[in-house]
Amino acid sequence: MTLTAIRFVVPGQPVAKGRARARLSRTREGRDFIQQYTPADTRAYERSVAFEAKIAMERRTPITGALVLIVHAYFGIPASWPQWKQREARSGLVVPTGRPDWDNIGKICSDAMNKVVYRDDSAIVDACVRKRFSRDPRIEIEVRTLNPLRREEPELLDENMVSET
Fold first, then answer.
1. Which contiguous run of DSSP H or E holds residue 160?
2. Which of 12, 74, 92, 161 has its CA 20 to 30 A from that of 133?
3. Which structural domain, as residue segments, surrounds residue 129?
4. Number of domains composing the chain
């Protein structure tokens, strides 16, 4: 049987993919060169996502074919907010519109699952990242094969927001 979908949760506050950094370094011979590296918090979060993905995969082989990635990022509600705003955040009336950017959340998740859930994230042909508030900060990730006979948009988009042309 071929694996067609995987779902798992990464507990804790969502982290976005940090920009690659560069620093000037020197070889033992004294030659200068530019060394590029990934920030430590990005590497640590990618390890957390990969760890949860490995558990969910249960030693199965990576999913093949065209893939759909759905990420639900739930951020903690700031304790400094007034009670009315915390209630609205819990009910979904207030959503996280600031940083981190949605695309950096999706990028850290897709990069972390390379060679664990799929061979390469280039197989992802559709993706959706949602940011919401919750008392329980976490990221819920779903990866599934694209079924060309099934219309994917209703799950990924609110039908009321799609205009007819």
1. none
2. 161
3. 5-146
4. 1
